Amino acid sequence: MSYIQQSFKVQFEYKVFFTEKIFDPTNTCFAGFLGSLADEGTRRKLLFIVDDGVTKHHEQLQSQITAYCSALDNFELVEDIIVVPGGEAAKNDLQLFYWLVNEVDQHAIDRHSFIVGIGGGSVLDLVGYVAAVSHRGVKHVRIPTTVLSQNDSGVGVKNGINYHGKKNFLGTFAPPAAVFNDAQFLATLDERDWRSGMIEAVKVALIKDAAFFEWMETYAHLLSEADPQSMQYLIYRCAELHMAHIGGAGDPFESGSSRPLDFGHWSAHKLEQLTDFELRHGEAVSIGIALDSVYSWLQGMLDEQSLHRIIHLLKTLRLPLYHPLLEIEDGESAIVAGLEEFREHLGGRLTISLLRTIGKGEEVHTMDLELLRKAVTMLREKW
Asked: Which of 87, 132, 159, 217 is the most buried (most CB within 10 A)?
């Protein structure tokens, strides 16, 4: 037997900037980033794709982008700023994906150009996927506009859309060229959006950082009222912990079956689908975290005091703990079916993150349906 073996490594690096009023003429953050990449004598194109919910609340945004980019050296703004539906609908519309790929082609966006996505996590997932598959990879920049996307999905390396009712079935691992978290966008968020966006901070604190969880307990009432200073710290620390895991855990593109950052997500993904995405992602994850925390206690892993602290924090943040679709009858439910879909999504062995204590997660490979039923009953009847 003869063969030729190839082996190489690819280095990825990107920054997450924290700023405000990114397209104000006096703000040099975005211009400075582009200027550091400019090639003398070469004009690169910028194609903007914007969440329609953002344009409704920031009516001057498109004119601000146009004016700001007109002052950039060596960069050319594509005149047509594309506006797309926000929310999960953006990831469910396969024709929208094809249309955006066609726009990339029509505007002659090449691999030296940049596609800039502005919006919530769903729009950024879609835009990142469009960029990743066009020309085998066009550079993309993310400008997240929600708490959830600024502290979690927008700062990571995943992109994707839903397919055949399965969340993120089509997608890529393609790091952004840069991320810009603009605090101004958070001021116009719907209450459900900023409230549910905090759950990813609760999640990462529970599995990674007990001190951060204690900080959230201390400032829970301010966070529940969207206090700007508290929210900014929550977003920064949550993003920092997510990025540290992505870059430091040894599996940034998730080639294995371990997914500690998916704590509370196995049931959440199914709940989103079953409610036709009426539940916000963060609301579904809150329910999933409550379920898996109670299950961890029933398994004898998590102590009762810690369980009560977790439930109390979720309630103080006014996040949901239960949904009727959790109910399990005769060992069967649509939620239980979500376990198999989650295993399939992992690409191998079922791996569920549970809690050993606040700040430390632990992985298991089986779930006891009777204990799951008891956990659901507790959420329904006790809290």
From this structure: 159
